[in-house]
Records
---
Amino acid sequence: MAPVTVLIPQPVGILRISGEKVWPFLAPFFPGVDSPPPARTATLLSFSVNGHCVDQVLLLYFPSPHSLTGEDVVEIHAHGNPHNVRFLLSQIQSRGIRLANPGEFSLRAYKNKKLSLLKAESLHRMISAPTYSEFLAAHTSFSNPKTHPLFEIKSLFLETLARLYSFLDHPEELDMPSYDATKEALIFAITSLLSKSSTQLSRFKKSRRFFPAYSILLAGAPNSGKSSLFNRLLRENKAIVSSLPGTTRDLLEGRISCPFGDIILLDSAGFRASNDLIEGMGIAKARQTISRVDLLLWIASPDHPNAFPLKTRTPTLTVWNKADLSPAPSSLKPDFSVSARTRRGLSSLITSLLARAEIFYSHSAGSDPLLDSSRQASSLSGFSKALSKALFFLSAGSFDLALSSLEEARLMLEDGMGMIPSEEIYDRVFTLFCLGK
Ligand SMILES: Nc1nc2c(ncn2[C@@H]2O[C@H](COP(=O)(O)OP(=O)(O)OP(=O)(O)O)[C@@H](O)[C@H]2O)c(=O)[nH]1
Ligand SMILES: [Mg+2]
């Protein structure tokens, strides 16, 4: 069981439960309802605890095997107050139903053959896509797996392999193409497969970012007001703010969804020489993150009126904070002068950040299907290496060695497509999913 929606005040909060014979566990919450509600139909029911109705809910029952996971699945659409959703969760847990791990529903769907690995990865990309066009690209692969780049490559590859097999099995038959014609056709097909794979790999490389959206890091000396600005930009009190220098130790992440694409905002530990082991680790993490983001905001303030002390290729803007206390020294020449406390200057900073993110997205990949993960990319790159070997052997006239390289390539591709089950794949793919998926 897991909440499918996040725990914030909202009209509806959804809980999902999956398992064998789920209804008998839930029946006590619905006194008077003797049999499971009708399948795949929304039923309005009173959720009761100790004989008292605690919420009116819509219940959807998907009996096995016609469900998301292949098991019995029940979805409860409750009123979305987070306290209510937590209470319902705890009540259901007290009946012996445990909380699901992140991605566990998808993992069960995969194990019960309800979802292929490629679809699972497209689904993950679809949910976390930072722009609508990236959502559409993932949706195309998800709803029509034949458009997935690996699927297209596989069809072409199998034709090539079949051609080689049939030549090796019946080389003497009259209607078979000659040795030279076969060799030429195979070289042509493999070269074209190599070119398709390399196009996909470079599109993937171009689209890949360390953070899954346009990312902005707030860095600066301790107490310069990074967390205060982070909270202001996010419009949420996510980071702890205090007058003690060294308050933030880890990297904190927030996401802002804009019509043209998402922005990931990162708050970090203040730069200083520290003997504290944990703070030191936080500072190292902040430094490491500088080269991984799309934009660095260096926050200076009257406490530490210094310019950014390091060299970086990451575009950097200097922001003078606490402008309510004093103006920036003329030597600093900040790009923006703001006060996180009074909000002075914040709107022009925000306008500039949004404009930069919009330009960034205007150059990003279109909505054509793309590889979904670095796992797929590494399989495709192994596939290409094996193809190159096959090409070498073919050119040297050794069809047998070419065949064994093509078989090696087939394994690589099948591994990429999740056709070879392995525990490692479960760990690498499904644990990345969010709770409730
Ligand atoms: N006057 C004034 N005080 C501010 C402003 N911004 C932040 N402060 C105060 O400065 C102190 C430090 O703020 P934080 O946001 O915690 O600073 P930080 O850079 O995140 O600090 P560390 O996490 O320790 O690196 C707090 O007491 C804030 O209330 C501002 O614009 N004006
Ligand atoms: Mg802080």
---
Amino acid sequence: MNPQARVLLVVGSARPVRVGDQLAAQIKPILEAAGAEVTVADLAELGLPLLDEPMMAAASGGDYAHEHTRTWSGLVRDADAVVWLTPQYNGGYPASVKNAVDYLFPEWAGKPMLLVSYGAGGGGLGGAQLRSVLEFVKGDVVAPNVEISLPPQSSYGSDFRLVDAASDVERHRQELESAAQTLVAHVGAVQVAG
Ligand SMILES: Cc1cc2nc3c(=O)[nH]c(=O)nc-3n(C[C@H](O)[C@H](O)[C@H](O)COP(=O)(O)O)c2cc1C
């Protein structure tokens, strides 16, 4: 039997009042049911400053000056696969996510990945842009992006949090399950081949 797939679930939103954490809590068990051992990397908690490494990661080869970079690098290196959970901001994906990508470089090469975007209409523009960047750094995006739609009128409470995150994710359960299964199977195939 293959070892369990270690999956890093990245919460891309770093705002003090946000919904990414609520969605991550609902997506995590779907990944686990597909056979993943999930670690959550919440960019709000990681608190990476705007990129402050003196050398670009592509040139430093993973020899980083700062402890926060080594922590982030270690999380990615220790994972067999990465699931990016990203909101859409103004037709793109957030600066927090781009910043997190730009901190590293060799870590992304060949890393199996999955993208889950969200927004009023599913955040597809942000998801597509992030996919293009992750492919540029040679990430191995293994399934179509999943887009979670959050209609503003029905999804949010007066506190700007989701009223019922479980139902929001439930509407996309089939796509999420299918993508999670593809990701875990892909990791298994890589492990067998390696
Ligand atoms: C700066 C900003 C820009 C936004 N732009 C979009 C957008 O282009 N399309 C969309 O569907 N929602 C947009 N929204 C709404 C977000 O998708 C929604 O607030 C979502 O909850 C953001 O994720 P978060 O709460 O985890 O940060 C925007 C929100 C913010 C804060």
